[in-house]
Write a structure and sequence with these properties.
There is one protein chain. The chain has ten helices and ten strands. Helix 2 packs across helix 3. The protein is α/β, with parallel strands linked by helices. Helix 8 links the parallel strand 4 and strand 5. The longest helix is centred in the middle third of the chain and has 18 residues. The chain folds into three domains: 76 residues; 54 residues, no CATH class; 143 residues, von Willebrand factor, type A domain (Rossmann fold), CATH 3.40.50.410. Strands 6-5-4-7-10 form a five-stranded mixed beta sheet, sandwiched between helices. Strands 1-3-2 form a three-stranded antiparallel beta sheet. A two-stranded antiparallel ribbon has the order 8-9.
Length: 326
C-alpha cells in the first residue's frame, strides 16, 4: 500500500516571475488610486521598502520599464512630459478581467449558461423533451436513439433506412437578450468615516461589465453614475471614477436609467445599482432638496415611486450594498 508523501510547501508566488508578482499588486494599487500611475508606483515603492518585494536583480525601475515595454502604461517620453504616465487600454482591460476573477473566481467550475428561460426555443441548454426535426435544426441536437427507433418502426429492420421524417431532436431552452443599466453611487459618503467604499464599488462594476460584455455579447450595457445629478459614462472610465462632493440623488439615477432602457428594443430589461445607503437628495426644477440626516419623507417617497414604476414596467432593480453598517 502506498501512503502519503509529504514535501515542503512552495507558494505559487515564488514560482512567478518578478514582473507578474509586482503587476498583481500594481493593479490593485491602480484601482485604489483611480488610475493615477504615479501615485500607485509611489505606494508600490513604499511597500517594496517594507516587504522587500524586489531584489538587486529586478527593481522598481525595471518594473516600470517593463510596464512601458509590455504596453501597460504610456511612455511619457513620447509625449515630452516625463511625469505624464497613464494606463493604456490594455491595462484598463486587465483591470476589468482582474475584477471579474476576484469576484467570480469561485464560479469557474460551475455549469456554464446564458440567459435561459423556461420557454422552449433556439438555445444551447437541452430540455428533457424531444420533437420532430425541422429544417434549420443543428445536427448536434439530434436524438440518435429515438431517430433510429423511428426508422426501424417506420421501415422495418431488414433493410436500414433513415429518412428526414424519422429524425428527432432534443428541445432546447430559448435564450434571450437583456438590456442592462449599471448605476454607480459616487456621493461623498462613499469615502466617509474612514471607509473606502468607492474601490469595491468600482471592482464590482468592472466585474459586472466584463462579465456582460464577454459572456453575454448580444446584451446591451449602459453605465451611469449619480451624485447630485446623474450622467452616463463609458466602460473605459470605470477605473478612474472618483467620489465627488455630492449627495445621493437616487431619483436622478433611476430616471436616467429608465430613459435609457425606454430606447432599448429588448423586452428584457434590468437595472443594477451599486450604492452605500439611503437617498439624500432630489431635484425640483433648478433647486436641490438635500437631507443627509435620517430618512427624508419627500426624498424617500419620490424614490419609492420610481421603484414601483420600474416594477410595473417589469424592470427589476438589483442593489449591491457597499457598506458594513446595517
Amino acid at each position: 500500500m502506498i501512503g502519503f508523501r509529504f514535501t515542503n510547501y512552495i507558494p505559487d508566488d515564488i514560482e512567478k516571475e518578478p514582473f507578474e508578482k509586482l503587476l498583481k499588486i500594481f493593479k490593485e494599487l491602480l484601482l485604489h488610486t483611480s488610475g493615477n500611475v504615479s501615485e500607485a508606483l509611489s505606494w508600490l515603492t513604499e511597500l517594496d521598502k517594507e516587504y522587500k518585494l524586489t531584489n538587486t536583480a529586478y527593481g522598481i525601475a525595471d518594473f516600470i520599464e517593463d510596464l512601458k515595454t509590455k504596453g501597460y502604461i504610456e511612455d511619457p517620453e513620447r509625449k515630452g512630459n516625463p511625469t505624464d504616465m497613464n494606463p493604456t487600454s490594455k491595462m484598463e482591460l486587465e483591470l476589468r478581467k482582474k475584477a471579474l476573477d476576484d469576484i467570480f473566481d469561485q464560479l469557474k467550475k460551475s455549469k456554464s449558461g446564458k440567459h435561459s428561460t423556461r420557454s422552449a426555443g433556439q438555445g444551447d441548454e437541452l430540455t428533457s423533451e424531444i420533437r420532430p426535426y425541422e429544417f434549420g435544426d443543428k445536427l448536434e441536437k439530434l436524438d440518435i436513439s429515438e431517430s433510429i427507433k423511428n426508422a426501424q418502426i417506420n421501415h422495418g429492420i431488414d433493410v436500414f433506412r433513415l429518412e428526414e421524417s424519422d429524425l428527432q431532436v432534443h428541445e432546447t431552452f430559448y435564450q434571450s437578450r437583456t438590456s442592462t443599466v449599471l448605476m454607480i453611487d459616487i456621493s461623498h459618503s462613499m469615502i466617509l468615516y474612514g471607509e473606502d467604499r468607492i474601490t469595491p464599488a468600482k471592482r464590482v462594476a468592472m466585474a459586472l461589465s466584463e462579465l456582460i460584455t464577454t459572456r453575454y455579447q448580444n446584451d446591451t450595457l449602459d453605465i451611469i453614475v449619480f451624485g447630485n445629478d446623474a450622467w452616463q459614462i463609458q466602460i473605459k472610465d470605470l477605473p478612474y471614477l472618483k467620489v465627488g462632493p455630492y449627495h445621493t440623488n437616487t431619483v436622478a439615477g433611476l430616471e436616467l436609467a429608465m430613459d435609457i432602457l425606454r430606447k432599448r428594443k429588448n423586452p428584457n430589461k434590468q437595472i443594477m445599482m451599486i450604492t452605500d445607503g439611503k437617498p439624500t437628495c432630489i431635484k425640483k426644477g433648478k433647486r436641490y432638496i438635500k437631507n443627509s440626516h435620517g430618512l427624508d419623507k419627500n426624498i424617500l417617497n419620490r424614490t419609492l415611486a420610481l421603484a414601483v414604476k420600474c416594477r410595473k414596467l417589469q424592470i427589476p432593480i438589483t442593489t449591491f450594498m457597499i457598506a458594513r453598517d446595517p
